[in-house]
Write a structure and sequence with these properties.
heterodimer, A: 266 residues, alpha/beta, TIM Barrel, 8-stranded parallel sheet, 8 strands, globular, B: 253 residues, 3-stranded parallel sheet
Chain lengths: 266, 253
Amino acid sequence: MVSTIREKAILGLPLDDVKIIDCHCHMGDWRAFHAPKNDKEGMLKSMDSLGIDFACVTAHSSIGPDYRYGNDVVIDAVTSYPDRYFGYVTVNPNYPEDMQNELDRCFAVPGFIGIKLHPAVHGQPIDYKNYRLAYETAEKKKCPVLIHVWGAGNVVTVSKLADEYPNAIFIMGHGGADIPGFEKAIDVVNKRNNVYIDIAISNVREGNVEWLVREMGSKKILYGSDMPFFDPRPAFGRLAFAMISDDEKRDIFGLNMEAILSKQKA
Amino acid sequence: MEEALNFLDCNCSFGRRSIVEPGSFYKIEDLVHKMEYYGIKRALVYHAMAQEYSPLVGNSMLMEEIKGYGQLIPVWAVMHHHTEEFYEPDVLKDRLRENGIRAVTMFPGRNDQGFSTDEWNCGELFDMLEENSVPLIIGLDQVGIESLLGILKNHPGLKVILKRTGYSLNRNLYGILKKFKNLYIESSGYKVHHNIEEFVRMFGAHRLVFGSGMPFHSGGSAVCNINYARISDEEKNMIAWKNLEGILGGVKW
């Protein structure tokens, strides 16, 4: 009798009875390396084999050179597959004159649920003045802002913004990325109601999910894979096989993100 | 799949090391427990001290500590003999045979044992491994692409299992795989989107070898990479254990 998440994963069965929302996905080409099958159909194949219900996407182009081109890729995905994709509006602080227009343009499309910022690629700090409009928009909409957060310094910056914008939901992409970053993230998340981490990272450390759950519980951690930057199976596998309860796995796989999206609707 | 795969892992270690990250482990009993939990039946293991201190000391500790663990298969760390810190190749050959060692690894990276793997330094060592069909398991972070190419080119009979290939190597890796048939890729370190499916389509399942990277990397991630691959069950079995078993079976002792 196959009943637990681990037992299904041993047999490679999709987790059809588990709500899975991948909160950290991209789409399209990336300049620095070959990422096969990176379009909406290729990603659906990956999702279907694991049982991922929804992927929240920002296009690689958006976090790179052309936010409008990338946001159009996401518009196409959420309109083509409204029951599989959610979209993040991605803005680039180096084009402040167009930010309001781009936020309005994308949020007018059903399926856009939040904002994505990649300060590292766009060459500005997380608290850069030109990001203010994005944070103010998230505050008004009570929507998530997914930010590329790498290292303890980034985590501290997010904590200050989270205090300043208490109705916005801050998702620290990659969870801080290294051990000092994770440790600071644990402290920040435990002291705030509007800060989450995701587990998208290439360095899938043994025992890492278990440690995070021990330190911060299962309610503030989100499943994210970074697909198609990487394949989603490594992030999926370290959660499916984590030595935590199935209820905790369900929280992380999708219930926590579902709750975030429900608040926004309310 | 109707049955779990019988994983044979080419990439495990245990023993005290400089840094043990939160949640990870270092004890041999924890490794064995984790293997069982993830469905990994057998594993090739090296000792952390062979990487972070001395191959001779670490290999010796390995042989002592794995006694009683039939599911663990010893892998020795090797290096060249020029400084007299390690065996000359003909002596090493005898030691490997006497101890039943059927795979070796090495840590020539700058942050580990810091030596060149170029022919002038390691050619005799690789000659011996090649002549006896002993595979070399090595991380890309240890060897680098140019040195790897030298090994593959100068020793076409030496089977090299490359670890830690990451997610950004395809634009170089595909060309190398086409040119050098003695290169195999460890599965867990290869994280490209549709990694397994595209690799099998391009190069065949016989070039992939299962590894987990424990205790550094998640064994759960590693097995899901294969369990959920959209390939045939036979191809999964090849990657999970058959390919490595075949490579080990070719060793001349």
